[in-house]
User: What shape does this take?
Amino acid sequence: MATVRLKKGFDIHLLGAIADQAIGTVSEPRSVAVVPDDFHGIIPRMEKKEGDHVAAGEPLYHDKNYEAIKVVSPVSGTINEVRRGERRHIDAIIIVPDNASEAVALDIKRPAIEVLLESGLWAMLRQRPYDVVPVPDEKPRDVFVTAFDSAPLAPDLDLVLRDKRQYIAKGIEILDSMCSGKVYIGVREGQHIDAPGAEVTVFYGPHPAGNAGIQAANIAPVNKGETVWTLDIVTLARIGELFTTGKVSHDTIVAINGEMVRQPRYVKTVMGTALNTMLNDNLTDEPGNCRIISGNVLTGAKVEFDQWLRAPYRHITVIPENSKPDEFMGWASLNPKRFSLYHTFTTWLRGLKKPVSMDSRIKGGERAIVRTGEYDAMLPMDIYGEFLIKAIITGDIDKMEQLGIYEIAPEDFALAEFADTSKLELQRIIREGLDKLRAEMS
Assistant: This one.
């Protein structure tokens, strides 16, 4: 196997890691929701309405521009509400499960692309450039699969896979038939994945080594005019299971952790399940004093206690909302227990690998960009991060192309955003730049 050693990046060690690898169970959720914003690039057009009954795997809506792209219900039940926001934007499709086992069976003898589009699994793939749901009529050069998650408190994907590992080979076979190049799988040191037909690369180094886009950039970078797909090993196994059994599996194993979780643990549930089902009686404080994040602290979405598990459906992190609102000197406090990435405080003397407490405060205001090399130190890609951000802010499309915007996704800049002393919303800037570029090129 090939190896790649990454020196750039940083591992953030937070309190609240899961010590017990046992997988628990939770009660049946009172509601399950699909959030269209989790599938960037799709403009939803509803196929169902409030009060309709749906089976697991039955389409809820399709993409306005590519009607073949479907997003399906993860459970059998009744659509209780299509919640809309400003300008009738669909915020969530809320389903009340009926606890029946009714599920849609697909004809897997048809072309693979047709099956994936109808099953809803297509919407879980991402393409570079633009980091959107892939366009069906563009054949990818390669497919990049990450087999580990290096984000803070991230779940162990080997544990999440469990008995789904048997479907990995079939998933590789399907994706290999759909691309003109190769299927690459990135694994961590000591991790074993039986992946016939794929090229396996071992990655050494800190986060964001587990990002599929980072792995692609260090194996075969994306150039202008090329398209690649990215996904994780769990989605790959789902694809293999679909083409083995004819049905999509919507169950998942979720890691619930963080400083404010009383008992960090893994639980088995269903995609899009209600958070209160999993967090009830398991928080150390009132929900209003907690920052509940669907996903990890760097790229996850802030959610409320009465909302639902968002994509990628397998991680809930809970940290303090504002643990010390009256702290002396505020963000400039000289508290020796305060985390410091740049040796500003004395915490670094005891090492940066010990778990630390962090809350949701930004601790400072937005400032001008100063060339400090912070972005480059956190971004193991062959691009100039600071110059790219400036090009996006100024709307210079030619510069954006020259500086490598086709390779990146917002998640690749998440760690740089954490380390940024300018306090800029780098992920938002990257997303706006990608959307603008895509609009210009279409």
Remarks:
- The chain has a mean pLDDT of 93.
- The chain is about 20% helix and 20% strand.
- Residues 2-245 form one domain.
- The radius of gyration is 21 Å.
